[in-house]
Structure formats: structure tokens, C-alpha cells
């Protein structure tokens, strides 16, 4: 019994297939509770007014956007080292979800920034880093769709993901060096002292869990779809060969 | 490896367009910018390092598809990869040849073009230094990108989408080094970071490039 058993596509589908719907339901419930609680049942923050409520979308989507890339990095490494197809497909499945989360974080940030900072956009470290992350997602997805052979595509995108990760971290520090911050510090961290106040923290945690559950459900669903799509292609190729022989 | 560099240099020279095109492109950019933002000398002088850096970036980008495409078309690339020279060596040699044909001329020409943009004398020297330190990294990253998009038909746009984000750290430190040097501020951080990025890229990216080359020629 080892974790690599689940690298078998069939085992992967039979194990995680039934999880998708319950996870979706859990994500839906958590999001409704978290967002509803955050939007209607928390006081308005001093200096922020009602604009603070966008935090319940902004922070979780940014969190998922970054962690989706880290997940893609891990699965890319697994693909390059152990060559499990499910791993490569999971990376492929996660990319568009991560891209959408990045867009959500950027857009909600702009909407939040307008009343708070008086500007939709500022060339400021965090914003710029996220824009760069967005470009990395775009390139990664474009490469997947440009290469027809699945194995080659998986190899190339894995290489790009790993090299890109290094450069993404580099860009992050370069950008920090390049411009001074307007964005507030971390809203959340392991160090409890830095958190926002409890009233906001609890609903934020709930909607955070909702976003993560949604991400996991979407990635599982998309991975399973990719596996099935590839199986269909293989079956059709086999049928064609059989016809050619007959 | 030296033979490969020399061969690429000869090809670039004799086939034409190797040295000249990148420079002509940079010249056109430098000509266009004053039309775009107006002939105000102070403004031009202030944005000149940035313009020249971005121009150099784009000039390098435009010449990237030459690195592997021609060899791939006439079938000499598989021969190179199966030769005793390791793939990492090929990647490094290709990047070196690319730098000699684009990065080096751009670096040398940038201070002269800076005259057109009213760049002050100390700033021209700092720009020269920044470009000399940064362009090898641009060539090496570009070689990696060119290797990735080797098998993609009409991969030019994809290549720019993949490579330009990777150029960002080099651009940030390079432009900052030129700006700070011109303004007489402390330059240690951007100088060391730029040199560090270039050295790390030259040390590590050949391995990624060789991996990608082998995948594409499988």
C-alpha cells in the first residue's frame, strides 16, 4: 500500500471519482456560509466601510491561485521523476483553475483598490507579482494547447513549470526591490498575532475552506475528464488500426 | 563546442541579418519613441535607460527563433544532439553564439543610441555595464525558450509569451542598475543581483535546455 497506487488512472478514477460531487456540495455550503456570514453578519471595519467585505473573495482566491501553482510544480516534478500520467494531467487540470483564481484576485483587488487607494491599479510589489503569475499561467496553458503529442507536451510544460517557478520567485523579490508597497501586509499568517480581528477571521476561514474545497473538486473532476478523454483517443486510434488491418 | 560556436557565427555572418537586424530594430525603436512621447529632452533622458532595455529585450526576442529553427529544418539538429558533445554543451554553445551575434552588438550600440535619447555620459557607461551583465542571461533564457517551442508550428507568439515573463527579473535589476548608477545612488544590490542571475542562468539553464531538446527530438 503506497501513495503511488493512485497513479494508476483506473484506481484514481474509482477512488476519487465519487469524491467530486460531495466535495462540490461541501464547497457550496462553505462558500454560502462563509460569504453570507462575511457579507451580512460582520460589522463594517473602521476606515474601510463596507468595502472590507470583498476580502472574503479576494484573499481566498489569491491563496488558491498561488497554491495551485505550487501544486502544479509538485505534480510536474512527480511527472518528470516517476512518469505517472495522472500527475501530468493533474497539473494540466489545475492550470486553468489557477488562472481564473488569479484573475478573480486581480479584479477584486482592483475593485477594492479604487475606493481605498483611489486607484484601480498601482505598480506595487504584490499587484505586480500577481500580474506576473497571471502571465506565467497564460504561457503554461498556451504551451499545453500548442503541443499535440501528450507525452512531449507533459515534458515540456513540466520543464517550463519548474524553470518558471524559479523565475517567479526571483521576480517576486526583484519586484519587492523595485517598488515600495501600497498593499497591506499579510492578512493571514501562521503567526496568529498578525491576523485580522477574530470577527473577520472566522468567516474568512470558512470561505477560504470553501475555495480550497472548490479547487480540489474542480481539479479532481478535470483530471478525471482528461484521463477519460485520453482513453477515448487511445480507443479510437486502436479502432482505426484494427480497421486498417481488416 | 568552439567549433559549434564558430559555425553558428559563420552562418549568421554569411546568411546575413545576423548582426545587423537586431541593431536596426533597436535603432527603429529609439527613433519611434520620441515620436510617441514628444521631443522633450529631459523626459527622453529620463526614460532612455528603460527604453533601451526594453528595446534590447525585444531585439533579443525577435532573433531567438534563429537559434534552433534553421538547424531543425535542415536536419542538422538531431545530428548535433547525437554527437559526442552533451546536450548541455550544445545549449551553452548556441546561447554563446546568439549572444555574440545579438547581445554583444546591442550592448556596444546602446550607449551610442543613448546619445539620440539625450542620455548623460555617466548614465551611458552604467547602461553599457548593465547590458553587458544582463544580455548573456537573456540569450541563455531565450535558448531555453527556443528549445521548448522547437516543435511548435508558428511558435513565435508562444515563444514571446513563455520567454518575456522570464526576462522580468533581468529587466528589473538591469534597468535599476542603469538608473541608480546614473543618479549616483548605491548600486551594489542591483549589480550583484544582475550578475548573480546571469551566472546562475548560465550554470543551470543548459541542463533544462538539454532536457527539453532531448524531449523535442525524441
Give a structural overview.
- The complex is a heterodimer of chains A (246) and B (218).
- Chain A has 246 residues and is mostly helical.
- Chain A has one domain (20-245).
- Chain A contains seven helices and no strands.
- Chain A has helices spanning 9-16, 20-40, 55-82, 85-117, 125-146, 150-178, 198-245.
- In chain A, helix 3 packs across helix 7, helix 4 (85-117) runs antiparallel to helix 7 (198-245) and helix 5 (125-146) packs antiparallel against helix 6.
- The radius of gyration of chain A is 21 Å and the shape is globular.
- The termini of chain A are far apart.
- Chain B is an all-alpha fold and 218 residues long.
- Chain B has one domain (2-216).
- Chain B has helices at 2-15, 20-37, 41-62, 69-73, 76-82, 87-116, 121-148, 156-183, 188-216.
- The mean pLDDT of chain B is 88.
- Chain A binds chain B through residues 132, 135-136, 138-139, 142-143, 146-147, 152, 155-156, 159-160, 162-164, 167, 170-171, 174-175, 177-178, and chain B through 144, 148-149, 151-152, 155, 158, 161-162, 164-166, 168-169, 172-173, 176, 189-190, 193, 197, 205, 208, 211-212, 215-216, 218.
Amino acid at each position: 500500500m503506497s501513495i503511488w497506487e493512485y497513479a494508476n488512472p483506473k484506481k484514481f478514477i474509482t477512488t476519487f471519482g465519487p469524491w467530486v460531487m460531495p466535495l462540490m456540495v461541501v464547497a457550496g455550503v462553505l462558500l454560502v456560509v462563509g460569504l453570507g456570514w462575511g457579507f451580512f453578519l460582520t460589522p463594517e471595519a473602521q476606515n474601510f466601510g463596507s468595502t472590507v467585505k470583498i476580502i472574503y473573495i479576494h484573499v481566498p482566491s489569491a491563496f488558491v491561485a498561488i497554491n495551485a501553482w505550487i501544486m502544479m510544480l509538485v505534480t510536474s516534478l512527480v511527472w518528470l521523476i516517476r512518469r505517472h500520467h495522472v500527475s501530468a494531467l493533474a497539473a494540466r487540470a489545475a492550470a486553468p483553475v489557477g488562472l481564473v483564481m488569479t484573475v478573480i484576485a486581480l479584479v477584486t483587488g482592483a475593485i477594492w483598490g479604487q475606493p481605498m487607494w483611489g486607484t484601480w491599479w498601482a505598480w506595487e510589489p504584490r499587484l505586480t507579482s500577481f500580474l506576473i503569475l497571471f502571465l506565467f499561467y497564460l504561457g503554461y496553458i498556451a504551451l499545453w494547447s500548442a503541443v499535440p503529442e501528450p507525452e512531449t507536451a507533459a515534458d515540456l510544460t513540466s520543464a517550463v513549470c519548474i524553470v518558471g517557478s524559479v523565475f517567479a520567485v526571483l521576480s517576486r523579490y526583484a519586484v519587492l526591490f523595485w517598488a515600495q508597497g501600497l498593499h497591506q501586509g499579510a492578512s493571514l499568517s501562521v503567526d496568529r498575532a498578525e491576523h485580522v480581528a477574530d470577527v473577520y477571521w472566522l468567516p474568512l476561514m470558512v470561505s477560504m475552506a470553501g475555495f480550497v474545497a472548490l479547487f480540489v473538486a474542480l481539479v479532481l473532476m478535470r483530471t478525471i475528464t482528461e484521463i477519460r478523454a485520453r482513453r477515448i483517443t487511445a480507443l479510437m486510434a486502436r479502432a482505426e488500426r484494427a480497421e486498417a488491418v481488416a | 563546442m568552439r567549433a559549434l560556436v564558430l559555425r553558428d557565427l559563420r552562418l549568421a555572418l554569411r546568411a546575413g541579418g545576423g548582426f545587423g537586424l537586431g541593431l536596426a530594430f533597436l535603432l527603429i525603436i529609439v527613433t519611434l519613441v520620441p515620436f510617441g512621447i514628444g521631443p522633450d529632452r529631459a523626459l527622453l533622458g529620463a526614460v532612455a535607460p528603460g527604453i533601451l532595455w526594453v528595446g534590447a529585450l525585444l531585439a533579443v526576442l525577435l532573433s531567438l527563433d534563429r537559434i534552433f529553427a534553421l538547424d531543425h529544418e535542415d536536419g542538422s539538429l538531431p545530428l548535433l544532439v547525437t554527437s559526442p558533445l552533451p546536450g548541455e554543451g550544445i545549449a551553452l554553445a548556441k546561447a554563446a553564439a546568439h549572444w555574440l551575434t545579438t547581445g554583444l552588438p546591442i550592448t556596444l550600440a546602446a550607449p551610442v543610441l543613448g546619445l539620440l535619447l539625450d542620455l548623460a555620459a555617466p548614465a551611458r557607461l552604467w547602461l553599457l555595464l548593465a547590458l553587458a551583465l544582463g544580455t548573456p542571461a537573456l540569450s541563455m533564457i531565450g535558448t531555453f525558450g527556443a528549445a521548448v517551442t522547437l516543435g511548435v508550428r508558428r511558435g513565435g507568439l508562444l515563444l514571446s509569451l513563455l520567454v518575456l515573463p522570464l526576462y522580468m527579473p533581468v529587466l528589473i535589476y538591469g534597468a535599476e542598475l542603469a538608473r541608480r548608477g546614473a543618479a549616483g545612488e548605491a548600486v551594489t544590490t542591483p549589480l550583484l543581483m544582475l550578475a548573480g542571475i546571469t551566472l546562475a542562468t548560465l550554470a543551470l539553464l543548459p541542463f533544462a535546455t538539454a532536457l527539453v531538446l532531448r524531449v523535442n527530438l525524441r
